[in-house]
Write a structure and sequence with these properties.
alpha+beta, 58% helix, 859 residues
Length: 859
């Protein structure tokens, strides 16, 4: 009880000094809890949506996925004949059944040909209005569609795009473009996570989405009273003889939930990973805080020991303070985490994904995880300072000499740090020397962990040398004030090392990812320059296939010399070694593709692969299956027949663009594929006539004005798109890493603030002999800048080493260009100096306001 009282008294006596450590715990716990609440809320939203929209039993073709329609390579959904509806109605326990048609492989545009698809990546769905939809949608304006010239839109999409009754809308599918006017607006009765939904009447939906009437993509079945969904499924399956797929409402909902689960888990664990980094950085802050508090209470600890307190009691007293800090920071963090989750929901709403706070889900495990993590991390971080406090002898403490310096422990620490750093460096060397990317990635991970730990351990040793160099370069110009700032930073290398290490971790990851991202862009750009021989690339950024109507418009564009179609599909390969490889990708293209993409061949001529009944394979595939020029491969095309294709070329496997591709001609594919099953183009390449590139570029964009789902890019545009895609990913990661850097900044602030308190008497004496307030504040700011730059140098150097090693592994996959983004590295280094200045504002201000006489009188 005495230990607890002492801890409580010390905690509240130093509550100001504890505040920043509590904020670090709060931020880390808030990020963890916010992530859990946000993802749980999204799961709840989707659960409610899928449960509400799923009929008792859904019957669909065998080719459909469990989540519903799966558009085939020809751009149309799989269908079943209307006669199946009559068979379903005969099954026992069926109260009602209706056929529907819907598709997600669509683009919907307004009268100005602007896309009405969600910007959040949520699907665009066009389907027939049914009784099942009427359960979850309420017509708020106008009426449901009743003819080919009418279409109904969901309320969220109407509000976002300012649609009103009578507005013209175009539905673009593989069949063609259907135009109708808005006849009604329907509101969701459950939360809509952002999908754009459009309704046609059944015959119009059949004609527009499939190109024929008398077919359905799904049959919604309602159970009679007293009949369970499982019983109904069994009866329907028995009636249909297993020719079609039947799923209960629960099975459909589970399949839909599983479909989004992958994305949710990636987002969840990525955010938790960044929260873990913030916790790691926070450990340094807490260690520094308690180390300095213990040092400042040396005499007090000595008195406690002199009157009978044992080492364990002193140790427990410090740990009890850490426990209080952890509890306070964690409780506040749990509350902040709920607020963060609501903020994320509002942000997603701005991006088009609507999440209602009515579905806010705070599971009991969320605050439990937050509290446990926050308290455990805080107590573990305080263990070393607490142990050090217990070692202070009563007489040494009463003399205010503090804990004796353990030179042997310092040497052991330095040796351990050198060993760990050396072992990590060797791991990075093995990764860079690996022959296979998979093997090298294991060494890379080990090298990253060991070098990071090694730099943390060896930090105090590095601090002495690095700070002196920074002082010679940056601080000497400030005269005596600069030299004092340098000595202050060197006064306690362990403290400087720990403070700099907190910043080092975040900046090392920033530097590593910058090098990897920049190298990927540079390598892809280099490959484009070397291999792409066409002027324009046309594709859909959302992954939609290119419709025949759009291809026809491209081929009619003036100023083009050639247009090359590029298709991709799956087939079962039977190779000369007798093996059958299921669902193997094969690319079908026009013969001009051999000119559009200069792919390196190791045997034969790629142009010959486009001869009738011919193909190419890549070198690794050929080596694995004993294939040579002239070998015959049996290719059973999906939705088509089987062809015997002769290998006319073997391409290099060490390329970036179309890596691992195997080619055949579109004319060859057409021989073995029914016309209505022919896959649509993945992308199209166009080459302008000599000297007409600019005019052809404008003309091609004009030709595709009615098809906003497709983007026309020349090589410059394509390179910029690659750069933008990687840049967006990196910016998102940098944003998440910002949490760790903020915690590191708090560490610098806390170290300086406690250091000012620790040096109160010294500051008073310096002021008494003539140091001005301005000089004092400058000294503290310069000390902060040096500590920040020390952490930046370690982090950037370490990160560039990791990034360069990672690039060596990428080189095994064809990304051979190492590019160090010096502007980014330089900007981060300079930014670190400003971080140091910012962190010193409050400590420097407080130091400058000290009363000189009171400071001198301080013991």
């Amino acid at each position: 009880m005495t230990v607890l009282k002492t801890s409580m008294r010390n905690f509240f006596a130093h509550k100001g000094r504890m505040a920043l450590s509590a904020v670090a715990v709060l931020l880390s716990v808030a990020f963890v809890c916010g992530t859990l609440v946000f993802t749980d809320t999204m799961n709840t939203t989707f659960d409610k949506l899928f449960a509400a929209t799923s009929p008792d039993v859904t019957v669909s073709p065998k080719g459909a996925s469990d989540t519903g329609e799966t558009t085939a390579d020809n751009g149309k959904p799989p269908v079943m004949p209307a006669s199946v509806l009559g068979e379903v109605r005969k099954a026992r326990g069926v109260q009602a059944a209706e056929g529907t048609v819907f598709s997600t492989s669509v683009t919907v545009v307004d009268a100005d040909k602007d896309s009405l698809s969600p910007s959040s990546g949520a699907p665009t769905i066009v389907g027939s209005w049914s009784r099942n939809d009427a359960r979850t949608m309420k017509v708020t304006e106008g009426t449901a569609p009743k003819g080919p010239d009418q279409i109904m839109v969901d309320e969220d999409t109407a509000d976002k795009h300012h649609l009103k009754l009578g507005d013209e809308i175009g539905v673009i599918t593989a069949v063609g473009t259907h135009t109708a006017k808005v006849s009604g607006i329907a509101a969701f009765q459950v939360t809509n996570p952002g999908a754009a939904i459009f309704y046609l009447d059944l015959p119009t939906a059949q004609h527009t989405l499939v190109g024929q009437t008398g077919v359905y993509t799904d049959i919604n079945v309602t159970a009679a009273p007293g009949v369970t969904d499982d019983q109904l499924k069994q009866n329907v399956t028995a009636e249909l003889g297993g020719a079609y797929k039947a799923l209960t409402a629960k099975e459909t909902a589970d399949a839909n939930q599983k479909d989004v689960e992958g994305f949710m888990n990636v987002m969840k664990y990525a955010m938790l990973g960044f929260a873990g980094i913030a916790f790691l950085v926070g450990i340094f802050l807490i260690i520094n805080t308690f180390s300095m508090l213990v040092a400042q209470r040396t005499r007090e600890i000595g008195l406690m020991r002199a009157i009978g307190s044992s080492r364990k009691q002193v140790n427990r007293s410090v740990l009890a303070e850490a426990l209080l800090l952890g509890v306070v920071g964690s409780v506040l963090g749990v509350g902040a985490g709920v607020g963060l989750a609501i903020g994320l929901m509002k942000l997603m709403g701005q991006m088009g994904m609507h999440l209602s706070t009515d579905d806010l889900t705070v599971a009991w495990t969320t605050p439990t995880v937050g509290l446990v993590l926050g308290v455990v991390v805080t107590v573990l971080a305080a263990y070393l300072p607490a142990r050090r406090a217990g070692k202070v002898s009563p007489m040494a403490a009463l003399r205010d000499s503090g804990a004796p310096t353990d030179a042997r422990a310092g040497r052991i620490r330095a040796l351990l740090g050198l060993v760990l750093t050396g072992a990590g460096g060797y791991g990075l060397y093995l990764a860079a020397s690996a022959d296979k990317a998979k093997d090298g990635s294991l060494w890379l991970g080990l090298g990253v962990v060991l070098t990071l730990i090694g730099f943390v351990v060896i930090g105090p040793l590095l601090a002495g040398g690095v700070v002196r160099v920074l002082g010679a370069v940056l601080l000497r110009v400030f005269g005596p004030v600069g030299r004092m700032a340098e000595r202050n930073a060197l006064r306690n290398p362990r403290r400087t090392g720990a403070t700099g290490a907190a910043l080092m971790i975040g900046l090392a990851l920033v530097a590593c990812l910058s090098v990897v991202g920049s190298s990927m862009v540079a390598s892809a750009t280099d490959q484009l320059d070397k291999t792409v021989g066409t002027d324009f690339i046309v594709q859909s950024d959302s992954g939609q296939l290119i419709t025949p109507q759009a291809v026809k418009a491209m081929k009619q564009t003036p100023g083009l010399e050639r247009v090359t179609e590029y298709k991709w599909l799956k087939a079962d390969f039977t190779t000369p070694d007798g093996k059958t490889l299921k669902d193997t990708a094969i690319t079908a293209a026009d013969p001009s593709y051999a000119t559009d993409l200069h792919t390196e061949t190791v045997a034969g001529n790629l142009a010959d692969a486009y001869r009738p009944d011919s193909m190419s394979v890549h070198q690794k595939f050929a080596d694995d299956h004993g294939i040579r020029l002239g070998s015959t491969v049996s290719v059973a095309f999906e939705n088509g027949s089987t062809a015997k294709l002769t290998v006319r070329a073997i391409t290099s496997s060490d390329v970036v663009i179309d890596q691992g591709a195997m080619y055949t001609a579109i004319t060859t594919l057409a021989k073995y594929m029914p016309a209505d099953k022919m896959p649509l183009d993945q992308m199209v390449f166009a080459t302008a006539k000599d000297g007409q590139q600019d005019a052809a570029y404008k003309a091609l964009k004009s030709s595709l004005h009615d098809y906003p789902q497709y983007t026309v890019r020349d090589q410059t545009d394509y390179k910029q798109a690659l750069k933008d895609q990687i840049g967006q990913l990196l910016n998102m990661i940098y944003g998440l890493l910002a949490l760790a850097i903020i915690v590191a900044i708090l560490g610098v602030v806390n170290t300086l603030a406690l250091s000012v308190v620790e040096r109160t008497r010294e500051i008073g004496l310096m002021r008494a002999i003539g140091l001005s307030r301005r000089q004092l504040r400058r000294m503290i700011r310069l000390e902060s800048v040096v500590i920040a730059l020390f952490g930046a140098l370690l982090g950037l150097g370490l990160g560039m080493g990791w990034g360069a090693t990672a690039q060596k592994l990428l080189a095994l996959e064809g990304l051979e260009v190492l590019d160090i983004p010096w502007p980014t590295i330089t900007a981060v280094f300079i930014g670190s100096a400003f971080v140091g200045l910012f962190a010193a504002l409050i400590p420097a201000f407080r130091a400058g306001r000290m009363n000189v006489l009171n400071a001198i009188a301080t013991e």
